[in-house]
Amino acid sequence: MLSRLSRSRAVAVCALPVVALVATALFAPLPFSVAQPGMTANVLGENKGDPVITVSGAPTRRTTGQLRMTTIEATAPDARVSLGDVVDGWFRTDQAVMPRDAVYPSGDSVQEIEQHNAEQMRQSQDAATRAALRYLGMDGGKVKVTLKLADVGGPSAGLLFSLGIVDKLRGDGSGGDLTGGRTVAGTGTITADGRVGAVGGVALKTQAARRDGATVFLVPKAECADAAAELPKGLRLIPVTTLKGAVNALTALERGKGPVPSC
Fold it and tell me: Which Gene3D superfamilies does UniProt cross-reference here (predicted)?
């Protein structure tokens, strides 16, 4: 049939399926999420009118400076992400294209994902409390810590929760603050024995931190390269592997004495 058509008409006919395929590729939903820098919250202060950290059973200190946990915002698990969205996000430094399964558990509904993230946050808060009290040598049966952070899920605030508890209860151990009056931000999971784990999205979290005034960013050591690749100007990276190491680094930075690790 095509042999009987003029060259121009034949090309037009052949092009129709190609155009249809391109259009389908451009607008069909793809298994990706597009992420960007999210909100940050000072764990030493309040969030939506409530203290983030409340301690009973032990005296607390009045702190200066800030310890800001960081987040990323991703397209909703049921959102349609097209090829155009992926291409646009791929070339922007303030966005990242990530496999949907890396952001949300595969096959879960929106409700199940929200429940999963809330449970991860609860477990993270429990581990952060145990890690901080263990580091301080305090009895978890006598000292009660309540952590409250609205509209945030997942485990990545664990390190900052632990540091906030330490700062409120002991500071730098000599009457000063862990922050040295600075705005310190960071990210990282934490276990009950104080080990810090990787979280993902650190390049976007450093942007959120700098946007909200941070000059220091605590990053899991395993993610140093990712954080340094697109580090905002004016933000200093400090790699950490343990809660003790993070406290020591902040104390050295605050006092201007001793080694402060860098990426």
Answer: 3.30.230.10
